[in-house]
Amino acid sequence: MTTDSATAKTPSDADVQKHLQTAIEAAAQNASVDGGPFGAVVVTADGQEFVAVNRVTADHDPTAHAEVSAIRATCKALGTHDLTGAVLYTSCEPCPMCLSSSLWARLDAVYFAADRYDAADGGFDDAVFYEFFTATPEERDKLVPVRHVAVDSRKAPFESWAANAERAEY
Predict the structure, then answer these.
(1) Which ranges carry the CMP/dCMP-type deaminase domain (predicted)?
(2) Domains and CATH numbers, the chain
């Protein structure tokens, strides 16, 4: 997974502001109806815009954050899982899940308006999720124990993947 950010087109300050404002407006509208106060916009290299909002409570889906929803909508519409050349604009700093999704989608850049501290002030304190990755195993266990179990057949899916001549690399 490599992206040459040195050759990526950097959006103008005006474009960044415009797209962040779109994300903020979508978030505010969503918060006033039936969703969380988060919005996101993916803008492709050719200028297509895909706007999404947080649907966690509306869809009963804890992964339906605005950023993930925008990435999903973009990938589905374009028929690809590789968004190289695209940029994500989001009303708030992405949580670790959303940032990881941005990396998997191969986005060129991520811009956000409010930061994690603004979100905490608004009732969305994700600090424990950011800290999870730097915590000791004992500290992580207090949140959710994650255990490696070496099952004999554990490599079988990867062997099947390697043997599949028609696999789609990602």
Answers:
(1) 14-146
(2) 13-145 (3.40.140.10)
